């Protein structure tokens, strides 16, 4: 077959396909409208009204010439070496001073931000954009520049608030929207300063919500495929109404460029932090004063719960709001101030967003029964010294020789002066000491280590190796597959683990 014959056959085939497509009936699901299927026709009008509120953040920091992990030492040259002048000039330029000693160099970085108050000149950005900066400058879309002062930062959410003096300049501001109303698949628009280019608009959708990327205690990111690159940090993520629903903060990228996986702090979290930084220059978060851990399927089964939901209280902090017995280790918090608690992240975030001093209702499961307790919240920032256990000697005397027993791969012994001294166990810890753990045992699989103390089994206190064995046998007779152990570290910090009994 000649080339011309082949081309003629291909044209006939294409014509047949075209005619078939014109005569066929295309089925479109009734719930998808043509406009929704195509996406927004244009975001030009929306972008035009928002570009003026988005700014570039330029920072500078003076660094000593001899500082930094990449500092290269000045080589030692023979007296009168012809290369002396060359190396002197090279290291003076590179490290900010002759031989890198006593000089300094200015390091600059770029990021993004947005104006939230045009009259007072408040600007929001990321904390990591301005961290350690000596000077901060805000660059506007019209080319003007203003020096900025730092109002306050919050490292836990990576948010910072700056202030500029408009000095007669008319600024454009944007407002926070409600990120709780956005859905996966909604269109969003990012504006920022990628790679220092400035005024860059990208469009995408909300790819996912409630993402935890292990960047902080309040991770609840919006994931988007709108292009976000280096320099976009601190810039806004808009919905199609022009409201800020997120602050662009992080990306996942092996290359450093956008691969369609970017993360934004939701406005529902960010707006409260921004308001506190504007008012107080710092955050004032609620504090419950409990140590919590996630509930696995095994723990849920051991506690008799219908599902692995809630936050398990693993310990109570001394001097905290619930150090009065209202909440106890082993309780499972399922609702806080009227909001459902599905996991530990929910509880951490809801408590932090609650006002200091507020009295709230806490719904919890205690030994299979639902109870409601009222708690007055403390302040998280005041709680840094209350988490450690008291480790002072009480002078109590106990027998030095204690019986031992073996169960679930653990060798157990009574807690007395000898075992406290051997493992450095705090005086306020009570229970049964784990003396040894057999390799490849059920206890070893759960990370139980020698020196830990079993304080409870299935929410019943134990004080001797015999108590432990009796509780294990009782659980086996009940048909339980796992034993729920509350363990205390040598400092007194508690955690729950489940150990297989088969």
UniProtKB/TrEMBL annotation:
Protein's GO biological process: proteolysis
PDZ domain boundaries: 277-368, 412-490
Keywords: Hydrolase, Periplasm, Protease, Repeat, Serine protease, Signal, Stress response
GO CC aspect terms: periplasmic space
Region (Disordered): 378-399
Location(s) in or outside the cell: Periplasm
Classification via CDD domains: cpPDZ1_DegP-like (cd10839)
Superkingdom of origin: Bacteria
Key word Phosphoprotein present: no
Biased composition, class Acidic residues, residue ranges: 383-399
Molecular-function GO term, any one: serine-type endopeptidase activity
Annotated residues for binding of substrate: 128, 158, 231-233
Signal sequence bounds: 1-37
Keyword tRNA processing carried by entry: no
Family: Belongs to the peptidase S1C family.
Protein name per Swiss-Prot or TrEMBL: Probable periplasmic serine endoprotease DegP-like
């Amino acid at each position: 077959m000649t080339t011309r014959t082949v081309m003629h056959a291909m044209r006939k085939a294409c014509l047949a396909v075209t005619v078939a497509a014109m005569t066929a009936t295309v089925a479109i699901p009734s719930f998808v409208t043509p406009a929704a299927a195509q996406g927004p026709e244009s975001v030009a009008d929306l972008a035009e009204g928002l570009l003026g509120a988005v700014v570039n953040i330029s920072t500078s920091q003076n660094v000593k010439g001899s500082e930094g992990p990449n500092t290269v030492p000045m080589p030692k040259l023979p007296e009168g070496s012809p290369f002396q002048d060359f190396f002197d000039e090279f290291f003076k330029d590179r490290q900010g001073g002759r031989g890198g000693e006593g000089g300094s160099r200015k390091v600059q970085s770029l990021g993004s931000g947005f104006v939230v108050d045009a009259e007072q000149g408040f600007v929001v950005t990321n904390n990591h954009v301005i961290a350690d900066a000596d000077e901060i400058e805000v660059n506007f879309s019209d080319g003007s520049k203003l020096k900025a002062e730092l109002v306050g930062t919050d490292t836990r959410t990576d948010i910072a608030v700056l202030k500029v003096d408009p000095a007669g300049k008319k600024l454009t501001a944007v407002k926070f929207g409600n990120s709780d109303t956005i859905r996966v698949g909604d269109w969003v628009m990012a504006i920022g300063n990628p790679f220092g280019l400035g005024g860059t608009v990208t469009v995408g959708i909300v790819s996912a919500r409630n993402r935890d990327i292990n960047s902080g205690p309040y991770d609840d990111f919006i994931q988007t495929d709108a292009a976000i690159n280096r320099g976009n940090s601190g810039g806004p993520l808009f919905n199609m109404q022009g409201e800020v629903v997120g602050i662009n903060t992080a990306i996942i990228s092996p290359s450093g460029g956008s691969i369609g996986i970017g993360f934004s702090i939701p406005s529902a979290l960010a707006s409260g932090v921004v308001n506190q930084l504007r008012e107080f220059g710092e955050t004032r978060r609620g504090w419950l004063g409990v140590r919590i851990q996630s509930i696995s399927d095994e723990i849920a089964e051991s506690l008799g719960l219908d599902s692995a939901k809630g936050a398990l209280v693993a310990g109570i902090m001394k001097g905290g709001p619930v150090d009065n017995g209202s909440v106890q280790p082993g309780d499972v918090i399922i609702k806080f101030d009227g909001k459902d608690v599905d996991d530990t992240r929910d509880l951490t975030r809801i408590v932090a967003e609650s006002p200091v001093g507020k009295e709230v209702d806490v719904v919890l499961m205690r030994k299979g029964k639902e109870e409601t307790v009222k708690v007055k919240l403390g302040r998280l920032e005041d709680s840094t010294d209350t988490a450690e256990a008291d480790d002072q000697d009480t002078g109590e005397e106990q027998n030095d020789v204690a019986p031992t027993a073996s169960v679930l791969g653990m060798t157990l012994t009574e807690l007395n002066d000898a075992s406290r001294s051997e493992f450095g166990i705090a005086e306020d810890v009570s229970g049964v000491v784990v003396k040894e753990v057999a390799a490849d045992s059920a206890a070893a699989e759960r990370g139980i280590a020698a020196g830990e103390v079993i304080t409870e089994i299935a929410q019943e206190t134990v004080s001797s190796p015999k108590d432990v064995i009796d509780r294990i046998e009782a659980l086996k007779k009940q048909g339980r597959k796992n034993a729920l152990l509350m363990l205390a570290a040598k400092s007194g910090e508690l955690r729950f683990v489940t150990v297989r009994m088969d």
